[in-house]
Amino acid sequence: MAIAPVLSFNYQPRAQILSYHNRKQRYACIIAHRRFGKTYGLLNDMIVRALSNRTDGLRQQFAMMLPTQTQARKVAWQYLKDQTACFAGAKGYKVLEQFLTVTLPDPTNTNRPGSTIMLLGAENAEGLRGLFLDGIVIDEAADIPDFIISSIVRPALADRLGWMTISGTVKSIDDYLWRTHLLAEKMPLMWYSAVFKASETGIIPPHELEDLRRTMTEEAYQVEFECNVNAAVTGKIFLPYMNHKQITLVPYDPAGSAPITGWDLGISDSMAVWVMQMVGREPHIIGFHQQSGVALDYFVEWLGKLPYARRLGAHLLPHDSKVRELGNGGKTRVQALRDLGLRNLKVVPKLPKAQQIDAARMFLQKCWFDEVATEDGLKSLRNYKFQFDPARKVFSPSPLHDQYSNGADAFQILAVGIKRAMDAVDGQPSEADDYRELGDSMLGLPMDDERPLAPAYEVDYEF
Fold first, then answer.
1. How many domains does the chain have?
2. What span, in angstroms and rounded, lies between the C-alpha atoms of 290 and 310?
């Protein structure tokens, strides 16, 4: 059988991405500024790798995934066709426009089909189960749900020991892209990692960057062109008030006060509980748990397993925990929790949402968080945001209700109730509701739940 002549492939990589092309690691994470040429470079890297046959002779499949198939068509499809058009004269070359798929010719015999490269949209990820892959690029990974990558894409690489690249422009320290970057930095033998900032790559001329900076908000410029993840704060309610230096290892201190809990009791969605301990004048946030589809006894059991369970002090509950539920025999949630053995229940007074948020913002700046025990709770605080009105193009005063709001609401209950909880336990007169005084001597008083409790402390009343 006649073998067609070798066909040329024209690609001139930018110097900045050469280290990626020459990588030895199986996995890679690239964070790049806008107009870096990331998609073009990653796609060409895939084409080059697809032109090398496996030593076992098995047919190869590669893919580039973007958040939607429409985005894949707009961003990468023309690049893929243009860069592989040099193979159009080979019988093994095939383009399927409808499926965004290109089959390259076999490099040993261009009359035969070789590797296949597909463009995929993450919105159709469930249909990809059972697919095998020799390599994949996840582009704009900040906009793709974690489970798609971990539960669908990663298993598709397993039997082929395929490679994977995670890439995009970062949007949040909690998105999959940034977390992968942090992982990659810790595992350099397994991961290639690079962050390409516009001020360092030299790809966009300085005068153009200056013009961009004048016409964009500073936040947008820092995020889009300097890959500054900490600058993305617009619409975020608590993120600008968080001190990342105060997130570290913060264990329970036997010499500190009795830990206090703050609750959000969701009805049709998640419940969330924070655990706080005063150590001297510092609020230490030492625990967080959130779960959906469970009853109150689940959280009582969770609290009972904590190593300091016997020292727990007040449990701060939201105002609606006094509502009687028909499905619970007409009992309130306060009564239900008491029946489960929980004591020292305190109902926090209902305040306007703006006041709850202000109290939490002030309290937040004083808190030290255990980075392990409160990891999920910190995500809730960082991502709690106001609703956006697309018609008016402004943020509304109302927070968005999503997977992060329950944890954030529970923290607000903790912030609003903490000062009065301390006052009640120590028999001090409650002062005016001036939450600017958080952190004064009252907040540092010990709360010893081993002392005999006054009968009034366990009854169902507001502070």
1. 2
2. 21
Residue 82 located in a structural domain: yes
Residues 261 and 296 sit within 8 Å (Cβ to Cβ): no
Same domain? 303 vs 449: yes
The CA–CA distances, whole Å, from 248 to 285, 371, 378, 404 equal 10, 5, 12, 21
C-beta atoms surrounding 223 within 10 Å:
24
pLDDT: which is higher, 145 or 2 = 145
CB 95 within 8 A of CB 102: yes
The CATH number of residue 101's host domain is: 3.40.50.300
Residue 218 lies in a domain: no
- Do 294 and 397 fall within a single domain? yes
In a domain, 394, yes or no: yes
Kindly state whether residue 221 falls inside one of the protein's structural domains.
no
DSSP 347: E
Q: Decide which of 196, 230, 252 is a domain's last residue.
A: 196
Tell me the one-letter amino acid at 120: L
Examine the domain organization and report whether 40 and 134 are in the same domain: yes
Dump pLDDT digits (tens) for 157-203: 999 999 999 999 988 888 899 999 999 999 999 999 999 999 999 99
In terms of domains, do 180 and 269 share one? no
Other CB atoms within 10 Å distance of the CB of residue 397: 9
Strands (E), 6-76: 27-32, 61-66
Sign of the torsion angle spanned by Cα atoms 326, 330, 332, 338: negative
What digits encode the pLDDT tens for the residues 223-248? 999 999 888 888 899 998 999 899 99
Domain of 124, in residue numbers: 15-196
3-state SS record for 98-131: CCCEEEEEECCEEEEEEEEEEEEEHHHHHHHCCC
Q: Count the alpha carbons within 13 Å of 404 in the hemisphere toward its beta carbon.
A: 18
- What gap in Å lies between CA 319 and CA 187, rounded to an integer? 47
Average pLDDT over all residues of the chain: 86
Closest CA to 7 of 66, 47, 55: 47
Burial environment of residue 48 by CB neighbours within 10 A (0 to 12, 13 to 18, 19 or more): middle
DSSP 385: B
Backbone angles phi, psi at 94, to 5 degrees: -150, 140
pLDDT in tens, 66-109: 999 999 999 999 999 999 999 999 999 999 999 999 999 999 99
Same domain, 370 and 428: yes
